[in-house]
Amino acid sequence: MKTGKVYLVGAGPGDVGLITVKGMEAIKQADVILYDRLANPKLLEYAPAGCELIYCGKLPDRHVLRQEAINSLLVEKGLQGNVVVRLKGGDPGVFGRVGEEAAALAEHSIPYEMVPGITSGIAAPLYAGIPVTHREFGESFAIITAHDKSKEGQPNLNWASLATGIDTIAFYMGISNLPYISENLIKHGKPADTPVILVRWGTFSRQQTLEGTLENIAEKAKKVNFKNPAITLVGDIVSVRKRLSWFEQKPLFGRQILLARTGTNESPLAKELINQGADVIEFPRWTRTKMPVNAEILDKISSYKNILFTSPESVTEFFGDLLDQRIDIRSITATLFGESTKSVNAIHEKGLLARHLDELNELEHLLVVGDNYKQQQYVQRDFYLTSYKKVDESFLPLIARMLDEAQVNTILLPSSGAVKVFMEEGVDKGFVGKELLEKAQIVCLGDKSKASLQEFSYQADLVPETPSKEGVINCLRK
Ligand code: SAH
Fold first, then answer.
1. H/E run at residue 447
2. Which member of 58, 220, 350, 448 is catalytic?
3. Domain count of the chain?
4. pLDDT tens profile 326-359
5. Domain end marker among 337, 358, 391
6. What is the pLDDT at residue 67?
7. Helix (H) or strand (E) holding 341
8. Catalytic member of 173, 190, 389, 423
């Protein structure tokens, strides 16, 4: 039996764009992924369909899978011949216990690679506008744990050298020990007015910060109940923040969006929203299985006067079938239609002109091309079924966890199909709570989706002036 390979990968601090190319490649070819709580679950969308996803999340006081169990699972999956990815928040070598995992693999002669990641102690400050070194404010930087495995959880550090020898200090896992940290630093010679910043969920749109000094930060944090995961950054450098803040200035910073999704491909809208500073949870994830070629319909393809494509995927799949069957595109004489602008564009990319569904008047000699969801909508028509689409059940717990961690304040419904999916798969199945619908702003992309939502007895709070990416962004920034 062939032995597998294990990749011990740093996922970066949160923002999905901050994983390395190498880490992403490992995810894309994984058979099994064991992931931690602090690795952004959105990265798992890039895993191949059918990849086994195992949560090893640790909440500060609830260990879901103990370290020994994780080690033996890694060994077991590796020995079975799998490509295994162990995905950890930040860098695997920084308070990530990667050494213990690698040792277990080495003991069983399982090949492994370690892939570095961007550690939160550097990234979270940078996303708050603070470089950890600066020629004027900080020439040295230390990464320190503020919590250890001792009984009290209070690490026995060389406080005197820290207080006097290091300019900028990033404490990890530090919130509960804030009083302990500040007292010791002050006691050993760090000025009490040294600036401190706490950065929680750094690099996510839900990033929160709290500023103070060594003297008052513990009390300030207690007052607002500031929680982990957060970096505590101590040093004069914190004062440059006002000038250098950038991430928090993005137009959609703080927007935590739940986006109803009907497509199986990466959504360009989601990507743009993230670029503008939002966090986006896409629901649901779909699996798509290609159907066999329908030769009966293809044989008489030249007899159709109109062909309607119901999604961009249906365009790609249909023309793929033609090529498979060695049928030249030119044997199609029908006028081509797309159900959405996206589908029209997908047809254009084939070098063929297409019109929007709104212009379709003649329903005689019409062929509709699409997946099983669309088939229900066009029962009276000749239908070319390109693929079978199903909600990816294995992904549901993950989305649930994302919803749990985030504070969704915006629900985005891009089409009437998306409204239907959102209500049926999300709300009716209890996956999206009714309170969320009451609390969040509901944005429908156009009048059709607005009307569909009304059929389910809910109202849209916002409809952008134009149903484009720019339109949505303008409307959300207000
Ligand atoms: N390997 C990780 C650290 C794991 S220890 C890394 O390199 O970043 C867990 C601690 O990391 C948390 O308690 C918190 O202090 C910090 N942390 C991880 N992700 C964070 C984030 N997005 N924002 C702020 N702190 C984070």
1. helix 447-455
2. 58
3. 4
4. 999 999 999 999 998 889 999 999 999 999 999 9
5. 391
6. 87
7. helix 341-348
8. 173
